[in-house]
What we know:
Order of helices and strands: HEHEEEHE
Number of helices: 3
Amino acid sequence: MNLDTTEASASPLFPHNGHTPVATHAVYLALGSNMGDRRSNLAAALQQLREMMEISAISSIYETEPVGYLEQARFLNMVCSGKTGLSAHELLKRVKEIEKSLGRQPTFRNGPRPIDIDILFYDD
């Protein structure tokens, strides 16, 4: 039996590393913080997100007024995009775990929080 390894290695079914290819999904996430060291909170969230996704772009950071409940500090907000092998449901679950690990606790709608991560887009 003669296998042409050049052809096989070029196929997505036979990656160079020998592992089964992982389905990747394009995602865009919004991050916000208005409690504590806001910049550090955003950086810590990005670091934890890197464990579950390949981040390809990060926006500038913008300071914005709060929405809904106005009697609170201004937010620092940003967006990141990338790819993940997680399902939408699993990504949401992991994002909520990151928020909790960074000190977010249940409160009222639009209340202050050390970190908020929202899924803006998952694939299309």
